[in-house]
């Protein structure tokens, strides 16, 4: 489903190289976890997958279902089924959450040649997803993410994911900021979405999330490269030993 | 001591304006002194501080170049317009008596002209330019009064006379404890020679007034407007100014708190495109202690020139004044510009006053976030522009009013942004 080939990328306006040859393949139905020390390039990778213009790809390619996405803008990528749950979701004053959700959902449906949802159908869908994620209806009356607590923002990201039903879900530290109960609720939400056609790229620092969302593969990103790949036991090993040994081995 | 009156040379545009005023005929005696004052002083240039960003002499001169401008004045604009707010009662300012008014509201015509010799804006010249023009043209004059303790649920829409050479002078009073909503509707193709509209609004103690200016004149139109408001004790004055049209427009607001506990809330949106010059100039005069004011203008610029001048004046002894002013511009193109000049003039020591002006483009991170959810770029931009303006409109809270204004704004954005 996703093939990242020798991806090199730098900050567009100042040239600092952040990704230095990332290779990563994720199959449909797979849950891949990416771990790695602060500043290793995990968020950058997720932004580049989503199509953020602040970064410039200097070498390599990103193939999604066999086709390069590098020329697609973020909206086109989303319509093709890519979704990024942000590490730091943005507050957008003045944009009502419901208006946003409806515009996004219908824009994607339109891009895929599907009929737009009627308002009642849309409302039912939002209500059902919000209930599952224990998101208070009042929150959805506010402007997008404005005044949401850290954990509320993360839940709202997963609500968006559940509504948009993407094919490739990239989750950047969705666990950080969530309380213990919320972690369970969000993980249940994610697990409910797991299917043969859908893949997940889960970025996290902690084993705890991976207890709930059990990964098929675990990759360690370090200084812009994947330096080690393993199964779920790699995450356990990192939890116990830290990164030092793996970094030494790779050096 | 002898006084020498220096006769400056008049521009062709000034000469034509004077001829137009002379040609009006009616109410000659009341208009004569204002005509002579304009003959003496002409139109202000950028040397007059209040007109620094709007050089009226040059701007009017550029629009009235020949007799064709005068001829075009004859063309009337009689399109029947739906009121901005549903179920409004419409008062035509040249014929106020024929409106069917709600209980407690009276409208009469009068022959008075605006008091042009008193200048409420200390920055203008010895005469008040907009009022002098209004007086010289013998504005049709209307008096509207809302009786005390009357809560008028029907919005009252005020319309200048049909036709492009309209000038009006409206004196509106709202009695003690009363409440009312007024819409000043400025529409029509207009003409290069400025139309004028001067209003005085007297808000008695504990009264509550919402005044909406909906200015959507044609691209050729010049309009000079002025609203003079006094706000009594514990009274609330809310104003929304929408500028979404016109070629050359200046709208002045001069508000004065005259009773303790008075509250002023001014909001507005200026939407600018190529070829326009739109100026909003406000003064908030805090005369007595314990009064509050907030003022926010949001501007969307796709071209043209925008101006905001905002003055907060706090008189000696007007302690505990709390006044905030903001002017935020969203620049959607390099073609246009917006000048903001906030000013404070404070003669009391225990006050809270502040102002801020910002100008910028659409936030790239916000745009990315919306697009990353599948919203195409054009739609995402439109959402963000609407959000920027929606924030000030939504502060009006009344759902029907918010919807009506957002519909006007959406129409503009769909056409121009
Ligand atoms: N726009 C930018 N301009 C300059 N430097 C940047 C930019 N974006 C990222 N970087 C740098 O690139 C490096 C990788 O950042 P990134 O956010 O991808 O790390 P991360 O692996 O997600 O870290 P964390 O675990 O702390 O979230 C960091 O050193 C960061 O400072
Ligand atoms: Mg990160």
Automatic annotation (TrEMBL), chain A:
Residues 2-248 form the ABC transporter domain. The keyword Nucleotide-binding applies. Signal peptide: none annotated. PROSITE patterns: ABC_TRANSPORTER_1, ABC_TRANSPORTER_2. Keywords: ATP-binding, Nucleotide-binding. Transmembrane segments: none annotated. It comes from the Bacteria. GO terms for molecular function: ATP binding; ATP hydrolysis activity. InterPro entries: AAA+_ATPase, ABC_transporter-like_ATP-bd, ABC_transporter-like_CS, FeS-cluster_ATPase_SufC, P-loop_NTPase. PANTHER family: ABC TRANSPORTER I FAMILY MEMBER 6, CHLOROPLASTIC (PTHR43204). Belongs to the ABC transporter superfamily. Ycf16 family. This is Fe-S cluster assembly ATP-binding protein. It comes from Fulvimarina manganoxydans.
TrEMBL record, chain B:
Residues 171-388 form the SUF system FeS cluster assembly SufBD core domain. GO terms for biological process: iron-sulfur cluster assembly. InterPro entries: Fe-S_cluster_assembly_SufBD (IPR055346), SUF_FeS_clus_asmbl_SufBD_core (IPR000825), SUF_FeS_clus_asmbl_SufBD_sf (IPR037284), SUF_FeS_clus_asmbl_SufD (IPR011542). It comes from the Bacteria. This is Iron-regulated ABC transporter permease protein SufD. It comes from Fulvimarina manganoxydans.
């Amino acid at each position: 489903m996703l093939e990242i080939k020798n991806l090199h990328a730098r900050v567009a306006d100042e040239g600092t190289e952040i990704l230095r040859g990332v290779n990563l393949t994720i199959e449909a139905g797979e849950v891949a976890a990416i771990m790695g020390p602060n500043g290793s390039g995990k968020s950058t990778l997720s932004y580049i997958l989503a199509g953020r213009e602040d970064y410039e790809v200097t070498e390599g390619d990103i193939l999604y279902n066999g086709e390069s996405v590098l020329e697609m803008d973020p909206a086109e990528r989303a319509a093709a089924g890519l979704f990024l749950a942000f590490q730091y979701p943005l507050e957008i004053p003045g944009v009502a959450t419901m208006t946003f959700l409806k515009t996004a959902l219908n824009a994607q449906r339109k891009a895929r040649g599907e009929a737009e949802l009627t308002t009642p159908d849309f409302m039912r869908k939002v209500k059902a997803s919000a209930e599952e994620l224990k998101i208070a209806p009042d929150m959805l009356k506010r402007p997008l993410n404005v005044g949401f607590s850290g954990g509320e923002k993360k839940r709202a990201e997963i609500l968006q994911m559940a509504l948009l039903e993407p094919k490739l879900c990239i989750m950047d530290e969705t666990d950080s900021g969530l309380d213990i109960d919320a972690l369970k609720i969000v993980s249940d939400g994610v697990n409910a979405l797991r299917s043969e056609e859908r893949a997940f790229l889960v970025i996290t620092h902690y084993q705890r999330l991976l207890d709930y969302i059990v990964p098929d593969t675990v990759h360690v990103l370090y200084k812009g490269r994947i330096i080690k790949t393993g199964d779920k036991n790699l995450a356990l090993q990192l939890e116990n030993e830290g990164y030092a040994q793996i970094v030494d081995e790779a050096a | 001591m002898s006084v020498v009156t220096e006769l400056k040379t008049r521009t062709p545009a000034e000469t034509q304006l004077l001829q137009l005023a002379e040609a009006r005929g009616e109410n000659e005696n009341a208009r004569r002194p204002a005509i002579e004052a304009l003959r003496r002083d002409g139109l202000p240039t950028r040397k007059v501080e209040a007109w620094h960003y709007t050089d009226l002499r040059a701007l009017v001169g550029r629009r009235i170049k020949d007799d064709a401008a005068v001829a075009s004045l004859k063309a009337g604009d009689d399109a029947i317009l739906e009121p901005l707010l549903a179920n409004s009662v419409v008062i035509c300012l040249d014929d106020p008596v024929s409106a069917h008014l709600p209980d407690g509201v009276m409208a009469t015509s009068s022959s008075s002209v605006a008091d042009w010799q008193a200048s409420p804006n200390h920055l203008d010249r010895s005469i008040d330019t907009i009022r002098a023009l209004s007086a010289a043209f013998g504005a049709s004059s209307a008096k509207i009064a809302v009786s005390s303790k009357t809560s008028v649920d029907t919005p009252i829409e005020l319309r200048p006379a049909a036709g492009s050479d309209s000038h009006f002078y409206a004196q509106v009073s709202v009695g003690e404890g009363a409440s009312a909503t007024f819409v000043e509707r400025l529409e029509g193709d207009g003409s290069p020679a400025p139309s004028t509209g001067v209003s005085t609004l007297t808000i008695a103690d504990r009264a509550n007034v919402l005044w909406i200016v909906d200015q959507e004149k044609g691209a050729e139109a010049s309009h000079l407007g002025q609203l003079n408001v006094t706000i009594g004790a514990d009274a609330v004055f809310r104003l929304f100014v929408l500028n979404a049209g016109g070629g050359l427009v200046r709208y002045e607001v001069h508000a004065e708190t005259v009773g303790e506990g008075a509250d002023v809330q001014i909001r507005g949106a200026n939407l600018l495109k190529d070829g326009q010059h739109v100026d909003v100039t406000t003064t908030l005069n805090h005369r007595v202690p314990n009064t509050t004011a907030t003022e926010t203008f949001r501007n969307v610029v796709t071209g043209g020139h925008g101006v905001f001048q905002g003055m907060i004046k706090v008189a000696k002894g007007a302690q505990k004044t709390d006044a905030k002013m903001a002017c935020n511009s969203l620049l959607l193109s390099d073609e246009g510009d917006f000048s903001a000049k906030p000013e404070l003039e404070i003669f009391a020591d225990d006050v809270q006053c502040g102002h801020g002006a910002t100008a910028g483009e659409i936030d790239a991170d916000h745009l990315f976030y919306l697009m990353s959810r599948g919203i195409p770029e054009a739609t995402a931009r439109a959402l963000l522009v609407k959000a920027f303006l929606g924030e000030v409109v939504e502060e009006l809270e009344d759902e029907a009013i918010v919807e009506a204004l957002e519909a006007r704004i959406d129409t503009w954005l769909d056409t121009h942004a």
